[in-house]
Amino acid sequence: MFGGRQKSAVGLDIGANSIKLVKLDHDKDGFSISAIGIRELPPDAIVADEIRDREAVIFNIQSLIDQTDPKIKDVVVSISGHSVITDKFTIDRKSGPEAEQAILFETEQRAPFDVDDVTLDYHIIKSDEEINKMDVLLVAARREYLQMFLELIEDCGLRPVVVDDDAFAVLNSYVGNYEIDASKVTALVNIGHDVCNITYLADGLFVATRDVSAGTREIFNAVQREFRLNPELTAKALKGEMGDSIDQDMLKATIISATEELVSGVELAFSYFKSQTKIDAVDWVVLSGGGALIPYLPEFLQSKLNVPLEIANPLRNIDYDPELFQYLQPEKIAPLLTVAVGLAMRKTR
Ligand SMILES: Nc1ncnc2c1ncn2[C@@H]1O[C@H](COP(=O)(O)OP(=O)(O)OP(=O)(O)O)[C@@H](O)[C@H]1O
Ligand SMILES: [Mg+2]
Fold first, then answer.
1. Which of these, 85, 114, 121, 262, has the minimum number of CB atoms within 10 Å of its CB?
2. pLDDT exceeds 50 at position 297
3. Backbone angles phi, psi at 200, to 5 degrees
4. Which of 212, 178, 198, 189 is nearest to 290 (CA)?
5. Could you tell me the distance, in angstroms and rounded to a whole number, from the CA of residue 92 to the centre of ligand 2?
6. Is the pTM of this model over 0.90?
7. Burial class (CB in 10 A: 0-12, 13-18, 19+), 302
8. CATH code that applies to domain 179-311
9. From the DSSP assignment, how many helices (H) and strands (E) are in the chain?
10. Contact assessment for residue 103 and residue 173, using Cβ atoms and an 8 Å cutoff
């Protein structure tokens, strides 16, 4: 009230399939939801990280704000995809311009784009005097892409107060909702429409993150084709709202065959992670994103990876009045809200 403590933050997750909004009130006891909403986008308005129909995206963001809380101005947003890289690396302990120089050099080795065109942000997560090394967490985005994205948010009449990365939002939401079991190597697997973000934790700490360029769009398209449905009915079929008018065996077969590419992408990412880190096994998978809600997908993924799997509940530690948001049934669609919740948990002041 007196401009001291932060009272709330709004996470706005702009995905290829839908836009999610979560407003969390922050107080000394934790978090509570004060607004929530989801709006599906037309099929090709966003494809992967490319905004193809800017007008449609703006229209849908504004409509979502109007429906949930028209007073919202400040939002925490996230970017992901080819124009963004995130990495963790270890360098000699330095500070000031020397540190910047070293970090820029490391970025150069990693970025598939020219570092002159990059906006970067980093965080020193561990500094060890004894061995004179420090661990740096890096996020670098192509400047042009970031600029375009910020302009889009501003054109919606909003103010992007923090720009995060999808994978970090998933991590943030996990840390905010679960006791981390440090004895387990954990993979947070967030399956979206076009991208699957994987974030690894070991010894209770962040280790690495990788994006796999595959998601549920394949499944969506296959179901649409196989059952000759329009996009609205396809979405319904995947939400289990079509009842008996859909043959379940055929639905299962269609989903599973359309999931192959995604699953092998995740398998490959796991092998790569293990070979890079000399970690023998991933012990635990926490699945989030729309992929966690697609029928048969979690079981199939679990059987292929052969790793115990749990579906994320990003509302586990968050208070809300179920009556108030009944039309959305937050407890049922919670995995879909993982990124938005992680964003809304961010401190903005
Ligand atoms: N209630 C639901 N039940 C089952 N599936 C659902 C449900 N809601 C959404 N989905 C499916 O989840 C998928 C989208 O997942 P998600 O919302 O995580 O992707 P996105 O964030 O929009 O995409 P991306 O992160 O790749 O940009 C869609 O294919 C959709 O069919
Ligand atoms: Mg997403």
1. 114
2. yes
3. -105, 140
4. 189
5. 35
6. yes
7. middle
8. 3.30.420.40
9. 10, 16
10. no
d(CA 162, CA 164): 6
Q: Whose CA is nearest to atom 19 of ligand 1?
A: 192
Beta bridge partner(s), residue 125: none
DSSP string computed for 213-274: S--THHHHHHHHHHTT--HHHHHHHHTT-SGGGS-HHHHHHHHHHHHHHHHHHHHHHHHHHH
Instruction: Decide: 336 in ligand 1 pocket, CB within 6 A.
Output: yes
Q: Which atom of ligand 1 is nearest to the CA of 293?
A: 4
Structure tokens at 235: 């979405």
Among 17, 229, 333, which residue has the most ligand 1 atoms within 8 Å of its CB, making it the best to mutate? 17
**Is any ligand 1 atom within 6 A of the Cβ of residue 16?**
yes
The model's pLDDT over 233-264, given as tens digits with 9 standing for 90+, comes to 999 999 989 888 999 999 999 999 999 999 99
Give whole-number Cα distances, 278 to 125, 272, 294, in Å.
Answer: 21, 10, 33
Nearest ligand 1 atom, CA 195: 26
Name the closest ligand to CA 195: 1
CA-nearest residue, atom 29 of ligand 1: 216
- Which residues face 25 on adjacent strands? 8, 32
Residues with CB under 5 A from ligand 2 (ion): 15, 192
How many whole angstroms separate alpha carbon 182 and alpha carbon 279? 14
Instruction: Give the residue, by CA position, lying nearest to ligand 1 atom 21.
Output: 15
Type of residue at 139: V
Listed residue (199, 186, 213) closest to 47, CA to CA: 213
Q: Is the CB of 265 under 6 A from ligand 1?
A: no
Parse the chain into domains and list their residue ranges.
179-311
| pLDDT value for 121 | 87
Q: Does residue 238 line the site of ligand 1, with CB under 6 A? A: yes
Distance CA 314, CA 284 (A): 17
Give the distance (Å) from ligand 1 centre to CA of residue 315: 17
Ligand 1 atom nearest residue 234's Cα? 31
The model's pLDDT over 112-146, given as tens digits with 9 standing for 90+, comes to 778 788 888 888 888 899 999 999 998 889 999 99
The closest of 164, 165, 170 to 200, measured between CA atoms, is 170
